[in-house]
Amino acid sequence: MNALPLWTLDAMQAAMRAEAKGAPPQAITGISIDSRTVAPGEAYFAIKGAVHDGHDFVDAALKAGAALAVVEKAQVGKFAADAPLLVVDEVLAGLVDLARASRARLEGQVIAVTGSVGKTSTKEALLHVLSAQGQTHASAASFNNHWGVPLSLARCPAAARYAVFEIGMNHAGEISPLVKMVRPHVAIITTVEPVHLEFFTGIEAIADAKAEIFEGVEPGGAVVLNRDNAQFARLSRRARECGISRIVSFGANERAEARLLDLSLHATCSAVHADILGHEVTYKLGMPGRHMAMNSLGVLAASSLAGADLALASLSLSQLVPAAGRGVRQTLLVPGGEIILIDESYNANPASMAAALSVLGRMPVGAQGRRIAVLGDMLELGPTGAKLHAGLNEAIKAEHVDLVYCCGPLMRNLWDALSTGKRGGYADNAANLEAQVLAALRAGDAVMIKGSFGSKMKTIVSALEKRFPGKAALDEAAV
After folding, report:
1. How far is the C-alpha of 422 from the C-alpha of 388, rounded, in Å?
2. Under CATH, which architecture does the 328-477 domain have?
């Protein structure tokens, strides 16, 4: 038996109040906004972006097998008379309408995740544990903005038992319209930290922006908050003002409903003993770091509130692995032995930098090995940027990091603060730092690479992967 289509043509047309042109098929298997990756049977939405206009790629999408293209009325004359189209006034608005229709038909439990740090990891952990208990849909990658959230929601199958959506922001007012679209039964704020300070007056303003997530919580729904965070009281007060009475906290605080009782940190995993909503559980977490262990408490609390089995959820956490660019580690073969590469290149802020350095500090190294941090600029920190970069030196000293490579004008502040013995190298950008890092590595080293996405630290990760073969890949080839 064939699986039900994601959408029927009639349902899509009604949701978006669209006019059909050509002869689009009745069954639509998916939603895409990228002509390069659109799959046969999917609907291609020709969204206008900051750089490209999706209408320029409609023909390519249809040639790739797209079932139809959603285009705006003003541009319909560009396409062949028999091209399968749904015509709307504005394509992104049409996607939002489809997202709202998707939410209206969804009967499963919906969870929304935001926070200064750990949004994507928490979303991925929820996807992992809930998928073991029923059909689960979640945002792909970090699709958490004004187009990513409606795209993720429009892609949600009607039969999903659980749906998890990540909601991000870097300005006030961005979360509110997105969460009102998602309408979660459970909302999580992982933590509030000094991130995007360039656009806010201070940490309290960031907390208020994160608290917008409460505005869309369904009647009778719940919120999950970090009780160890300094903004907990402010957030819980705002939740009550929004009419939410079920406020569940997590953390080491003795008043937390999802409370850490004991934690054993290891290089590649953690052992956690916790009380989750009155039930004691002991579980292995397949990702290292205290920050990951703390967020796992929120994951289990939210899963329980959504009706999942707590024992099965905690058991599933042992198989959790990091998302791309968020702590993925691999063994690379270098002359004379191996190195461990930890890829944290997707993003960075002061809190996540401290957490990543803590993980690096626990990594075992070889007899002549060193713990090496390769760090790029943390962006959007405003006038506090210089101070926050220099302040990373305290974590570097506390975690016994042996050598630091810095790149970018903001990381120059850390470079100047480092003791001479910890200075590995400095360059103004990642491309210029690459050769220094490649030349310095030796057998036994553990190297962690991290920076904001805009600092392009992934280029150094890619250079290492290109220069040195991965041990796992060679072992698999040998088999």
Report:
1. 18
2. Alpha-Beta Complex (3.90)
CA distances from 115 to 91, 92, 286 (A): 29, 25, 22
Please give the DSSP secondary-structure letter assigned to residue 401. Answer: -
pLDDT digits (tens, 9 = 90+) for 354-365: 999 999 999 999
Give 352: exposed, middle or buried? Use CB within 10 Å, 0-12, 13-18, 19+.
buried
The per-residue pLDDT for range 78-107, each reduced to its tens digit, is 999 999 999 999 999 999 999 999 999 999
- pLDDT bracket for residue 196 (50, 70, 90): confident
Per-residue pLDDT of 292-313, as tens digits, reads 999 999 999 999 999 999 999 9
DSSP 210-228: HGGGGGGPPTT-EEEEETT
Helices 119-131 and 290-305: crossing angle in degrees, nearest 10, is 50
Domain ranges of the chain: 7-89, 106-319, 328-477
Q: Nearest-5° angle of CA 6, CA 11, CA 13?
A: 115
Helices vs strands, H then E, count in the chain:
17, 22
